[in-house]
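haha ok so turns out i had the wrong file open the whole time. this is the CORRECT one, sorry everyone. sequence first:
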Amino acid sequence: MKLQTTPLQRKMEQAIHLLESRFLERGELIRLLLLGIMSGENALLIGPPGTAKSQMARAIAQLFGSEHWFEYLLTRFTTPDEIFGPVSLQQLKQDQYVRKTAGYLPSAQFAFLDEIFKANSAILNALLSILNERLYFNGREKEHVPLHFLIAASNELPDENEQLAALYDRFLIRYEVTYLQHASSYEAMFNLPKEPLPVVFSLYDSKDVQAAASSVELPEGLVYFLYRLKQDMEEKEMVLSDRRLSKIAHVWKTSAALHGRDRVSIWDTIFTPHMLWDVPEDLPVLREMFEARFMEALKEEIDSELPLRRYNRIANRWLEKEAELHAFQFKKEIGAKMGKEAAETYRSMLEECRQELEETARELRGRLLQWLEKEKDLASYIREKNYLIDNVDKYAVKYAHLRMEGERILQVLQGLYRTIFDREIPGCEYDYTL
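then structure:
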């Protein structure tokens, strides 16, 4: 189905603005949770008490209307009745063990479970199927759960426990929430808006996005991108389950659908590091892995505009022949004798070198100048790629690095030409100080 992306983008931007005005230093988290809602994936917030985890969950639900909202603080004494509903006495008289789930988790569309890892095994077992298959086994019946999005929170990570590991793996999106870091945030926190949030979305919005996401194509290059990330993690003895790999691809497709694309782009992968880690301490390493792969993919994406790999191959090709071509030029100057066939071979090679260096350098210079024009409004260009990006400057720097790589190659080409032909390439002036 074709998704009407413009009205939805306006809603997403309105929701981001509303949430950012209430939750300071949470720009990335807000965008990640909204993407999670549109993907139908569960999210886990890890962090100390007093970091507004539960408040964030309630605010997100308010944007969709909170009439089907369920919230509970779990302890080791919490009973299944409190989460899934009391046992029906009427049914029990007929030897049927059935719970009355109306108003409890199995009937909720949005839910928040605080201190989820403190739940006992009876609750954990039932949660596994709810989180993954959206099914609740109520007596002998399989009851479909309309749950659209569940946010869980914990002050600490689970211990080594098989049941908790299975539950943990069902939370694709994981985010460590910390206390505020900036003085300006502490100044602003005392004057934050208090009024209830308006309803911005309907459930049909997320259903439409998921319907559109189902027909989005995942290109082979990005399948390989994800596989290489998995290999990088395995080299560091980090594990990524097949279920999580599949769900990551689903989130990418959802992002593509939100942006009106029928194919996943590298720009749909930007939140991936928060879907990879098992402990928050691994996040910096995983970010580094991801950023390296992202830059490779970004270089491929801009290849039609700035084919750096082709220019680099040409530069390297003549760098390898620089010494012998320079020696040939020197021998010509001093009148050294050489075989007729060898001289003809070098003359032909020299002419080929001259033409290729001149053509390549001029082409590269022209493309770099076009790129510099694009950099004047790079923020708009990047937001067109993904309007959920929080830190545009971070990605502008990536583009600047690619441009500087192009400038380095241009300098190599100019240096080669100067060494071999003892003059500058005509019509190839470039201001490297820009």
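The chain has a mean pLDDT of 91.
again sry for the mixup
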